[in-house]
Amino acid sequence: MTRAHHPGRLRISFLSLAVLFISAAPAFGDSADANQRQITKLADGVYAIQHKNLNDGTVSGNTTVIIGDREVFVVDSCFLPSSAREDIAQIRQWTSKPVAYLLNTHFHNDHNNGNRAYLDAFPSLAIIAQVETKKDMDLIQPGNIERTPKQAAATIAAWKQGKDQRGRTLSEDEKKQVQELLPVLEQREAEFKSLIYLSPTLTFTDRLDIDLGNREVQVMHLGRGNTPGDAIVYLPKEKILAAGDLLVHPIPYTYDGYPAEWAQTLGKMAQLDAEIIVPGHGPVLHGRAYLNLVIDLLNSAVEEMRARIRQIGHPGFHSLEDVKDSIDLSPFRLKFAGDDKDLQAEFDDMTVHLVKITFNEAALR
Ligand SMILES: [Zn+2]
């Protein structure tokens, strides 16, 4: 998934739900922190890898590495195969034991494009996913892999003619941004051409427990949330949890999902005795305060939507336009974004998506 759109930044995205996009204003680049690859040791033999946000606005999901006495378990294979290979080289510095299991927490390709890189490195690898995630990956990923290099090539061609991919002439500011982005996009196009889709090989419905050798790993589907098949990983002894995009910090990803069920799923997650949580994107979290804040946000959206539906009747006979102004999530803006203007803009953008998916979920009856 891409980060919420910052007004004023030219972006390229190659992800499941996004289209190539170019905007009209000059600002470019993220703050330094999000642009660094970061490794956090969570316990002996347990690490979180936060991939850098690329300077074209593309984001990549976090990877968690869990090392047991016999074998290694990896949570999510990230967006770029080249980044996955960098992670694999890092894992080999940590241990000589093989990666035996790779979990795809959900179907979005910023969490599973690197599957093939892991299989190439560890031929007896099992790729685990919840059954609905495998279905969604099999439906969506082969088309993604076919489309993205073509989209990149079309954008490169348009940019070279001073236009965006919709044929609009670029402003002078945008042309400057294009100068910086072109080499990135050309490199990306080449990498995308080499992508090979690899479907999960081992599915589960509710739960799968794996002993890696003195290391118990619990893989769970606690209900729907960000996608139909979200999986989390819990280490009961170490009290560490990898949440996938059920939890993204500092601003949730709400492009997809089922907010009412999502709040319940996160409620179950909050009952686990986790002290460290690796979100799908963003820095490692300590404690459950942020998790509880996201639950409150989702519940508020759902409650306000229900109040509106009581006024207007069956949502199937109404449109998003009829409800969206009745849902006000601005009381949460300060809690999520503080006084950071960029984050506030991301928060506001996120709420637009959240209201939409809350309405969609309510209308499905
Ligand atoms: Zn993601």
What is the end-to-end distance? 28 Å
Enumerate the strands of the largest sheet in spatial order, edge to edge or round the barrel. Answer: 1-2-3-4-5-6-7
Rg calc:
20 Å
Helix count, DSSP H or I runs of 4 or more residues: 9
User: Could you say which structural class the secondary elements and strand pairing correspond to?
Assistant: alpha/beta
Would you report the number of β strands?
13
Poorly predicted tracts of residues: 1-9, 13-32
H/E order of the elements?
Answer: EEEEHEHEHHEEEEEHEEHHHH
What does this molecule look like?
- It is a single chain.
- This protein has helices spanning 81-94, 115-121, 131-160, 172-193, 259-271, 289-312, 320-323, 333-337, 341-363, and strands at 38-43, 46-50, 63-67, 72-75, 99-103, 126-130, 202-204, 207-211, 216-220, 232-235, 240-242, 276-278, 285-286.
- By secondary structure, the protein is α/β, with parallel strands linked by helices.
- Helix 5 (259-271) packs antiparallel against helix 6 (289-312).
- The longest helix is centred in the middle third of the chain and has 30 residues, at 131-160.
- The structure holds zinc ion.
Short key terms for the protein model shown above:
365 residues, alpha/beta, six-stranded mixed sheet, 13 strands, 39% helix, globular
SSE inventory with pairings:
Blueprint: E1 38-43, E2 46-50, E3 63-67, E4 72-75, H1 81-94, E5 99-103, H2 115-121, E6 126-130, H3 131-160, H4 172-193, E7 202-204, E8 207-211, E9 216-220, E10 232-235, E11 240-242, H5 259-271, E12 276-278, E13 285-286, H6 289-312, H7 320-323, H8 333-337, H9 341-363
Parallel strand pairs: 4-5, 5-6, 6-7, 11-12
Antiparallel strand pairs: 1-2, 2-3, 3-4, 8-9, 9-10, 10-11, 12-13
Bound molecules: zinc ion (ZN).
